[in-house]
Design goal:
Elements (H helix, E strand, L loop, with lengths): L4 E6 L4 E7 L5 E5 L10 H4 L6 E5 L20 H13 L4 E6 L1 H12 L4 E7 L12 H14 L11 H11 L4 H10 L1 E4 L2 E4 L15 H9 L5 E6 L8 H8 L5 E6 L5 H4 L1 H13 L1
Parallel strand pairs: 3-4, 3-5, 5-6, 6-9, 9-10
Antiparallel strand pairs: 1-2, 2-4, 7-8
Helix pairs in contact: 3-7, 5-6
């Protein structure tokens, strides 16, 4: 069985928690999806024994620090944190492994820092969500309204870890054993039970999104070999037509479809690992 270490990366403005999988092979920085955490990659990384992987809890997720009071959770802020995390690890470059939001971040980082990304292994994501330019005023209005109401919300308290797992399964179709992996890393104990450790502000709508043309311009700037793994059951925000259009913008992209739903890298880790190994062999 692979050894997994817990570690902390002290950035100037916050500290990131991480799970490290030491090995002598390629260096991989793993970036999880929205409201997930580093445990998202446990099933997959057990099946990639030669890669030296570090899976971080992104700010506000898992066991990492929350952003300061008054801050927004802008997607682009994570690009600096990827930059500094690589510096702290002593990695001039690495493969970026991303799921969903993490795949969006990896796509953007590869466009901005092509010299630091050796390859992209993307699961259920290629670029961030986009918004038509005309919808931006309404998006900003919605974000400000949500922020104004955020102080009135109370954290939900779960009487047991099993209760929290049930809540996660009600929101996300996935295997119960994998939901438990995410939940156990994503809870903190309080006097009368457990609450989510993630920052409640992550649930607020963001005020700014790129247009589809801007996203596609970023995808066209990706230089490294890119593997995109998508699930056979597609989420509404990542339909096949969008996948095809965005994939056509990336010059060195291989696309593989694995049977399953959005957390296919957990529920069918073997097929996902096989896709990754196939891309490495090619």
């Amino acid at each position: 069985m692979r050894i997994v270490d817990e570690r902390r990366l002290a950035l100037p403005h916050l500290t990131l928690a991480a799970r490290e999988w030491p090995a002598h092979g390629p260096k991989v920085l793993a970036l999880h999806g929205w409201l997930d955490n580093a445990a998202s990659f446990d099933p997959l990384l057990f099946l990639l024994p030669d890669v030296h992987a570090v899976a971080i809890d992104l700010p506000g997720h898992g066991r990492s620090d929350h952003r300061p009071v008054g801050a927004w959770y802008h997607l682009v802020d994570n690009l600096t944190e990827i930059d500094v995390a690589l510096d702290l690890l002593g990695w001039p470059s690495a493969i970026l492994l991303g799921h969903s939001m993490g795949a969006a971040l990896a796509s953007l980082y590869a466009a901005a820092r092509p010299n630091r990304v050796d390859a992209l292994w993307l699961i259920e994501g290629l670029g961030p969500l986009a918004t038509p330019e005309a919808e931006l005023p309404a998006l900003m209005r919605q974000a400000l309204d949500g922020r104004a109401r955020a102080h009135d919300k109370q954290l939900r308290v779960f009487g047991s870890i099993d209760d929290a797992v049930g809540a996660r399964l009600a929101a996300t179709p996935m295997a119960a054993v994998n939901a438990r992996l995410l939940v156990e890393r994503g809870l903190r104990a309080v006097e009368d039970g457990f609450v989510w450790s993630s920052d409640p502000r992550l649930m607020l709508p963001g005020p700014i999104r790129a247009s589809e043309a801007q996203v596609e311009a970023c995808l066209a700037a990706i230089e490294c070999p890119t593997l995109l793994v998508t699930a056979s059951e597609t989420p509404p925000y990542f339909p096949p037509a969008l996948v095809a259009r965005r994939s056509a913008r990336v010059r060195r992209l291989t696309h593989r479809v694995v049977c399953g739903t959005h957390h296919v890298h957990m529920d069918d880790a073997a097929a996902t690992a096989a896709a990754i190994e196939g891309s490495r062999a090619g």
